[in-house]
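Task 17 of the worksheet. Students: predict the tertiary structure of the chain below and write it out as structure tokens. Keep your answer in the requested format; marks are given for formatting as well as content.
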Amino acid sequence: MSRSRQLALYALILVLLAASGLITAPAQEASAIGEPTFTNPLVQDAADPTIEYHNGNYYMIATTWNNKVVMRKAPTLAGLTTAKPVTVYSDTTPGRNANMWAPEMKLLAGPNGPRWYVMYTMGQAGSFGAQHLQVIESAGDDPMGPYTYKGRPIPTDAWNIDGSYMELNGELFVTWSQFSPDGLQSNYIARMSTPWSASGPLNILSQPTQAWERIGSPVNEGPVPLQKGGKTWIVYSASFCGTEDYQLGTLEYTGGDPVLAASWTKSPGPVFSKANGVFGPGHNDFFDSPDGTETWNLYHANARADGGCARERSARAQQVAWDGAGEPVFGQPIAAGTPVAAPSGEQGPITADVQGASFEVVNRNSGLCLTVADGSVTDGGNVVQGRCNDTAGSPSSWIFDSTADGHYRLVNASTHKVLDSANCGTADGTDARQWAWLANSCQEWRPTQAASGFLTIKNRANGKVLDAANCTTALGGDVRQWSALGNACQEWSIRPVGPSALLSSHTGKSFDIPYCTTSAGATLQQWQYLGSPCQSYNFTAAAGGTVQIRPGSSPSLCLGIKAGSTADGAAIIQGPCDQTASWRLVPFPDGNMRIVSALTGKSLDLAGCQDTDGVKLQQYSVIDNDCQRFQIR
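Model answer:
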């Protein structure tokens, strides 16, 4: 098939998508976590998935077809099914603000240290003919970002898609798909000087020359590395994605210069093809099990032969086996609904540096913070009331990490262990302690806003709430679980510790003070994250368990409601740190945060849920939509 005809097919897919009105289905309600098995598909409408397991969580991104890079996070593979998708980046720059395809994420040693890089395909609205690779970089080592745009890694205006990183022989390479001079959609390879810049020749790596690579249309695409035992393969997708015979093949590195096709040997046939009611399996990524003993394949496929290459494709996972010669054995796709053993080590015990913002958890009655006694790092370390340290990473700071099933695990930022109901006790008075993560409901908690505005923190397994024993106000006083009594000893507030970015969960863009002005009255807006002082915020304690939010560029001022208005749509400004500038932080069950004015009871809101830079932040009546969901990172 000619290049023009193939691009016409892609354009037809775009038209069909627009006509269908299909959108990503809302996350399902989860009933349990830590089950020994899961079933495929994992995530619907999730073509071209990429995944990493990092510090206690799986992180997954897939094609969105729009201008957003959307990430799911969960401590279990099955949890990705119910995880609330969060936009970590959206691009409104013309020419690269549509048709997001085929992301790949990887932790690399960037110029500023370890950073997450997401390479994805994006182009112009209304056409698939101007697709190019794009790269964004995380601000730190949290896969959830925030992210900044770095550029187009392939130095050509030619159509290029499906980029992946490969580290080999101490060098960094990029592989991707592009039309070669002879018109064949081929895999390419090049060295990289930075994670966003290819350097040297852009060489053809493989072409669709075999019959099994030419079904529907001659295609080589989606090249991703697989490495084990000193060996390296590139696993790629062949034939047209709209057919049931889209499938995987391999290129094995045999030595020599990796950018030369002669250094690779193609498999004589496909290594992973349709079977068991699974059609068009391809465009995959690999990840290790939590204990590092297993290699897993995450791929997309259709549930019917004519499912096409649009939004019916779903993400599925299964283990890769290894033969006696150290070669990968992919097997056949596992039929939908078949129980699959969860990746090894997923149910713990896991003690991990879980990524996320740190919060102090402050008791309403005593004003003291939830902490680990004496900073103990052992399982069973007692959780008590102690001084609020106001330091990220201290024993009095906790990461509220969503378990993707409507609850949280509270991970101590110092010890990396989780808040635990001792021995899964159901009795009033059962101790609160820390323990390695075991993926059970005794270690899951749900914060809920009480009538007072404070939070109660309820255990999932037994329904008891976190309680300051005997209403003590003494340092070192025990914290336990108890039946709900509705008193101040069972109510808590949360306060982020250290400089934080505040991001819209709808756009991935940052709260921003225009031009970093230090003038009172400046209206808060959203803007692409740049890491500037006017996109950094510190939280200080205020009356009644509320917080004040101080911009890093003007720390003597606070975010508040213009003129103390009670009206929907009133602007948020930086101004005096008075009663107009007090906020309550209320965690949603899905892992996002609502920020509510203590003065008006209204929520901080992204005006019109718009994507563009410069859209104002306002207050609005509390409604359950993505305009009022935020991330503190």
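Marker's comment: The chain has one helix and 46 strands. Residues 14-31 have pLDDT under 50 and may be disordered.
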